[in-house]
């Protein structure tokens, strides 16, 4: 007669259902860690084993579905029929934030989780602290008074560096008694029109309308890191070196607002290269494009925001664009010029550029 084997001893309080297979535990860990990786790190991990390769492919597929990582009202997908790049990696912020070095990690995974909650909490904590990256400059960019214009005409100043800067508008803000439902907070409620990011063979990633957008509708603001002028110049030097050795495009924007006194300019440096929103994909057009740029102030906020509105009706599948300005590199700076691929009938052949 064969004796029965004694039952396997379990630790105190341990049930059979509590024993997690090693594979499931491995997948759980992978799903917690991999969403924090950037595209290069994720690609490296995917080559280590078949399981991680499958998890990485799932994350890559999810990332291509929403560049905004659920921070906006609607997803903004990537579309690429040109090459093998499924998405562009950058840290997303819906508004201006203080500069950080190095940039923070950001959860970008298959579903909302503890990572996305901590990132949103961080963004919420700085949403009202838009008091960085401003300086008063003279025509050389060094002094505390003066203006870069040789002659300012009434109602117009060349320090407003963007063609199509039609107005300076005001909205309610933290200094008002109204709430978020106020009708005068249009640009503070996030993106509400269908957009997508499309890969172009010549221009790279471009922002396209994914629906009919009526004239005057708000598109988005230009969001990114707010830099001091010194930091902006340092970064531009780094970006120029990167561009000379590899395919690299920066998204550093300098805004100069002519102050009412006529004696100074308010300079704001917004860098969306590492941290920004979908406005970083809006390309230049020499004919002015189909977007109007509005420098908008909110009550209670020191710094204005650069916001984009539809200059006319924009149809689905139409690229969004605006004019970066009129300044072109000449003489000794000609080596820094960037070719323009806007395709308009009045294209200059080079992108606007000036010394940061």
Helicity range: 10-25%
Q: Averaged pLDDT, please?
A: 78
Give the amount of beta strand, in percent: 15-25%
Major sheet: 6 strands, mixed
Strand tally: 15
Q: Detail the poorly predicted runs.
A: 128-139, 141-166
What Rg do the Cα atoms give?
A: 24 Å
Shape: globular
Structure description:
18% of the residues lie in helices and 21% in strands. The strands form 4 sheets. Strands 2, 3, 4, 9, 10 and 11 form a 6-stranded mixed sheet that branches. Strands 5-13-14-8 form a 4-stranded mixed sheet, with no helix packed on it. α2 packs antiparallel against α3. With 356 residues, it is an alpha/beta fold.
List keywords for this structure.
single chain; 356 residues; alpha/beta; four-stranded mixed beta sheet; 15 strands; 18% helix
Quick structural summary:
The protein is an alpha/beta fold and 356 residues long. It is 18% helix and 21% strand.
């Amino acid at each position: 007669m064969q004796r029965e084997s004694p039952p396997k001893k379990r630790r105190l309080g341990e049930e059979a259902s509590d024993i997690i297979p090693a594979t499931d535990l491995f997948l759980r860990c992978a799903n917690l860690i991999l969403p924090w990786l950037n595209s290069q790190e994720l690609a490296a991990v995917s080559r280590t084993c078949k399981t991680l390769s499958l998890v990485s492919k799932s994350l890559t597929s999810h990332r291509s579905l929403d560049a905004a990582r659920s921070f906006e009202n609607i997803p903004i997908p990537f579309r690429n029929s040109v090459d093998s790049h499924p998405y562009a990696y950058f840290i997303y912020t819906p508004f201006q934030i203080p500069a950080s070095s190095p940039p923070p990690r950001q959860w970008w995974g298959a579903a909302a989780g503890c990572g996305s909650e901590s990132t949103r909490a961080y963004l919420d904590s700085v949403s009202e602290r838009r008091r960085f990256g401003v300086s008063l400059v003279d025509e050389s960019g060094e002094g505390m008074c003066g203006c870069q214009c040789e002659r300012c005409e009434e109602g117009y100043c060349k320090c407003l560096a963007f063609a199509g800067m039609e107005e300076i508008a005001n909205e309610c803000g933290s200094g008002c008694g109204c709430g978020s439902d106020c009708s005068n907070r249009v640009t503070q409620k996030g993106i509400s029109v269908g957009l997508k990011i499309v890969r172009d063979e010549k221009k790279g990633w471009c922002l396209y309308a994914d629906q009919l957008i009526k004239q005057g509708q708000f598109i988005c603001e230009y969001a990114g890191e707010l830099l001091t002028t010194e930091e902006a110049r340092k970064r531009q030097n780094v970006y120029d070196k990167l561009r000379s050795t590899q395919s690299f495009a920066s998204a550093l924007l300098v805004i100069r607002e002519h102050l009412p006194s006529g004696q100074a300019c308010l300079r704001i440096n917004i860098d969306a290269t590492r941290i920004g929103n979908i406005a970083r994909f809006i390309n230049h057009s020499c004919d002015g494009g189909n977007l109007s740029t509005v420098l908008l102030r909110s009550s209670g906020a020191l710094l204005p925001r650069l916001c984009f509105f539809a200059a006319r009706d924009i149809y689905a599948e139409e690229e969004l664009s605006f004019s970066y300005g009129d300044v072109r590199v000449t003489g000794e700076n000609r080596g820094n010029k960037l070719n323009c691929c806007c395709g308009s009938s009045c294209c200059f052949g080079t992108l606007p550029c000036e010394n940061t």
